[in-house]
Design a protein that fits this description.
Structural class: alpha+beta
Number of domains: 2
Distance between the termini: 62 Å
Oligomer: single chain
Radius of gyration: 25 Å
Keywords: Signal
CATH class of the largest domain: Mainly Beta
Order of helices and strands: HEEEEEE
GO molecular function: alpha-amylase inhibitor activity
CATH architecture of the largest domain: Sandwich
Largest sheet: 3 strands, antiparallel
Strand order of the largest sheet: 1-2-5
Helix content: 25-40%
Length: about 110
């Protein structure tokens, strides 16, 4: 009788350990995916300067972050700029035809 209880306890412990091991990568992957999504599509930090002239559908963006940044301009109801790498102190302009300025995001 004791042998069966120990065996059952051992099987239960192994199943619990296996279940925890199998569940951990999925939870970890979900957390990593969420973190990656946030990092790739969040609003650009304040060190990225934006000069927007909405009635001319124009924005000038300057990277003042001290390092290269991957950025794009999001246009609500229009075409976004491509995601490109901009070096420190590099600036660029983006004009759009349809839509309105939304924000600058990391990508």
């Amino acid at each position: 009788m004791k042998h069966r209880q120990r065996l059952a306890g051992g099987v239960l412990a192994a199943a619990t350990l296996l279940g925890a091991t199998l569940a951990t990568p999925a939870a970890s992957a979900a957390t990593t995916a969420t973190a990656t999504a946030s990092a790739t599509s969040g609003t650009a930090p304040a060190c990225v300067k934006r000069d927007v002239v909405k009635h001319r559908k124009y924005v000038k963006v300057t990277n003042l972050c001290g390092h290269a940044m991957h950025l794009k301009v999001v246009i609500d109801w229009g075409n976004d700029s491509p995601c490109l790498t901009y070096q420190n102190k590099e600036q660029w302009e983006w004009n759009w035809g349809r839509g309105s300025y939304g924000k600058v995001v990391t990508c």
